[in-house]
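help with these C-alpha cells:
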Amino acid sequence: MKLVTLALAGAMAVASFASSALAAADDFLTIQLKDGPVVIQLMPEVAPKHVAQVKKLAAEGKYDNVAFHRVIDGFMAQTGDVQYGNMAKGFDARRVGTGASELPDIPAEFSKVPFERGTIGMARSQNPNSANSQFFIMFDQGSFLNGQYTVIGKVVSGMENVDKIKRGQGGNGEVSNPDRMIKVTVGK
C-alpha cells in the first residue's frame, strides 16, 4: 500500500510541476518582426486584467499584421491598434492610433514597476482607465511614466529586433509606411 501511495504522490508531483511549467509558458508573448522574434515575459501578478486582455487578443490573432504607428527614437515604439492599424485588413493612416478592440477598456493597474529599456506599457488616453489593446515597448528608461501607465511585461529576448523598428518623424513619432507585428503568439 505504501508503494502505491508513494507512486501516486510522485505522479501527482510530476503532474503539478508540468502544470506549473505550462502556466509559466502561458505568461509569454512572442512577436515576430521583420528582423526576428521578440519574446516578452508578461506580468499577470502586476496587471492581471491587462495581461489577460492582451493574451486574449493575441490568441485570437488580432495583433497579427498590426503597425507600429508611433515610434519615437530614444523613447518607445507603440502598436496594438487592432481597429485601424492592421496592415492586411484595411490600414487607415488617418485614424491609426485612435482605435481599440471590441473588448471593454480596462481600469488602471498602476504599479511600482519602473519603465526601463524593454518594459511593455499599455497606451491610453488622458483617462487612466482607457487602456484597451494598444501597448508600447520602451527603447530607454522613462521614469516620468512610472505610476502613470500600466506595466504588463518586459522584453526578455530580441530587444535588438525592437531597436530596428522604423522610427517616425516629428514630435509625435507618426510613421509613414510603418513596420508591423507580423505574427503575435502566446508562449515563447
User: Anything to note?
Assistant: Confidence is low (pLDDT under 50) at residues 1-23. Residues 2-25 form the longest helix (24 residues). Strands lie at 28-33, 36-42, 66-67, 70-72, 76-79, 119-122, 135-138, 151-157, 180-181, 183-186. The chain has one domain: 27-186.
